[in-house]
């Protein structure tokens, strides 16, 4: 359909400079320039390094996206950009670039919430979102359970991590095991040849007492410490560490808690669809376990393909297109970058 909105989306909340172009629910271009290699030797993202990398990558990434999509920038109906949450300096580069484009092209601008964009991206793969749906967002910076009745209006938080994010736990445990950053994909790969019941690691916030106060919240810092203690004990006793078994047992503990709580949250509200997003949604065991357990509970699961789960510009464009399609009011041109933009604010 040609009356669907053509939207360009810009994402710079962390270390990926993402520019996506969509027409309605159709993905036309998803161009990502990552500075991840510049951060690898520090074992985590260095904000100032990320900001400078965004600055250098922005114009070429926009040009590549337009070329891939085969559209002229003057054809777009709106510009969408992540306004938060994220790293302040990194967000600023995206927001300033989006404003320059919006002013230069005379188009409306939508400053959007990064988490809501992780939810909206699934429309590019599986069509319109079921309303309501239960979204579980798991990445390096966030782990939350959200009830989404209309992704363009608001998202209701049901629970979140009380310490480390799920991806952060993957990255820290990978580091303990001597695997490169970011650790998630390496743990995933190692775990395939490991025994997931070799070590019984703790499941955070699942005791009856914890469930009273934190039924839909997560905690991964105790698990990370348990892995560290186990590795230290093995080293002290001179035993060799089977990295694959540790990776598989750790991954099993994370996926067990995530899937159990997501299904409990959906069931508690009578919601029949769970959507998983964020970088950790690329995890093969999480995808398989979620499908299996949700299926048994009569709940459908949607997970975008791995490339759409990690940070990208297409997710921002997808949310932007939905905002335009539903006639939502654009942001003002003095739109700020808000490093702690609440999930309840979809458009800044
Ligand atoms: O959404 P994302 O790209 O960036 C943030 O907003 O944080 O997520 C990155 C996180 C990292 O912690 C990375 O280790 C994790 O997602 N990740 C994975 C996998 N692929 C990426 N974790 C587990 N298994 C994976 N296959
Ligand atoms: Zn993200």
Automatic annotation (TrEMBL):
Signal peptide extent: none
What positions does the entry give for substrate binding? 137-141, 171, 184, 188, 283
Q: Which domain of life is it from?
A: Bacteria
Q: What class of enzyme is it?
A: transferase
Q: How is the cofactor bound?
A: Binds 1 Fe(2+) ion per subunit.
The listed locations are: Cytoplasm
UniProt xrefs under Pfam families:
TsaD
Q: What is the reaction catalyzed?
A: L-threonylcarbamoyladenylate + adenosine(37) in tRNA = N(6)-L-threonylcarbamoyladenosine(37) in tRNA + AMP + H(+)
Q: Which residues form the Gcp-like domain?
A: 27-317
PROSITE patterns cross-referenced by the UniProt entry: GLYCOPROTEASE
Q: Which Gene3D superfamilies match?
A: 3.30.420.40
Required cofactor(s): Fe(2+)
Residues at which Fe cation binds = 114, 118, 311
From the Swiss-Prot or TrEMBL record, what is one GO molecular function term? tRNA N(6)-L-threonylcarbamoyladenine synthase activity
| Alphabetically ordered keywords of this record | Acyltransferase, Cytoplasm, Iron, Metal-binding, Transferase, tRNA processing
Known EC number: 2.3.1.234
Q: Which family does it belong to?
A: Belongs to the KAE1 / TsaD family.
Summarizing the function annotation, the protein's role is: Required for the formation of a threonylcarbamoyl group on adenosine at position 37 (t(6)A37) in tRNAs that read codons beginning with adenine. Is involved in the transfer of the threonylcarbamoyl moiety of threonylcarbamoyl-AMP (TC-AMP) to the N6 group of A37, together with TsaE and TsaB. TsaD likely plays a direct catalytic role in this reaction.
Tell me which HAMAP family the record gives.
Answer: TsaD
Name by which UniProt lists this protein: tRNA N6-adenosine threonylcarbamoyltransferase
